UniProtKB/TrEMBL annotation:
Family: Belongs to the peroxisomal membrane protein PXMP2/4 family.
Transmembrane regions: 140-162
Membrane topology: Multi-pass membrane protein
Record localization: Membrane
Lineage, broadest ranks: Eukaryota, Viridiplantae, Streptophyta, Embryophyta, Tracheophyta
Protein name: Protein Mpv17
The keyword Membrane is annotated on this UniProt entry: yes
InterPro entries on file: Mpv17_PMP22
Length: 192
């Protein structure tokens, strides 16, 4: 349960020992992409275990993804003959919604990175064997459990920052299922 911070997502309560303590005794632990940077050891913060690497990766991917989405909307949202290539390049940065991109990056850093890190650590704890059955089960659980949770949180995060929390139920009702189905379609296509 080290992914959950031994008591919370990011806080390390004294109830258990973290990965860093085990590695000091054994001296055989290797770093992997699912390891978290342990700020307790690196910076001397006694009760703080935040998966910085995963948060930074999620933030950069969210920022990049939102930038690509905005660019795609500008190109395909207007008629192709309306803008020539030079005007498209010039309007790319001038019409970019940087607050939206930063909002998405903050979601990736503060919520998705640490949350998905904890989720995958939990899945690995309950299904440690690397077989086709466990891999398939993890993919199905991602689509059934993590997908709807991510959609619910991202809608709430955006509406919170836009000051439109009162519109959140209608957003869920109108957009949640189509977003989930589109995400599942992309997941299926990416596995083929």
């Amino acid at each position: 349960m080290g992914a959950l911070g031994n008591g919370g997502f990011w806080w390390n309560f004294p109830a258990g020992e973290g990965r860093g303590d085990r590695c000091k005794r054994r001296r055989k632990c290797k770093s992997s992409s699912s390891d978290s940077i342990n700020l307790r050891e690196e910076r001397g913060w006694p009760h703080f275990d935040f998966p910085v690497k995963q948060a930074a990766i999620a933030a950069s991917l969210a920022l990049t993804g939102d930038t690509i989405a905005q660019f795609r909307d500008r190109i395909f949202g207007r008629g192709r003959s309306q803008l020539d290539v030079d005007a498209k390049e010039a309007s790319f940065w001038s019409n970019h919604d940087w607050l939206r991109s930063l909002r998405m990056a903050s979601y990736g850093f503060l919520l998705y990175g640490p949350g998905s890190y904890a989720w995958y650590q939990l899945l690995d704890q309950f299904m440690p064997k690397q077989t086709f059955i466990t891999l398939s089960t993890k993919v199905i659980l991602n689509q059934i459990v993590l997908g709807p949770c991510v959609i619910a949180v991202i809608f709430a995060w955006n509406n919170l920052w836009l000051g439109k929390l009162s519109e959140l139920p209608a957003k869920y009702q109108n957009d949640a299922l189509p977003t989930l189905l589109y995400g599942n379609k992309l997941s299926i296509l990416s596995t083929l």
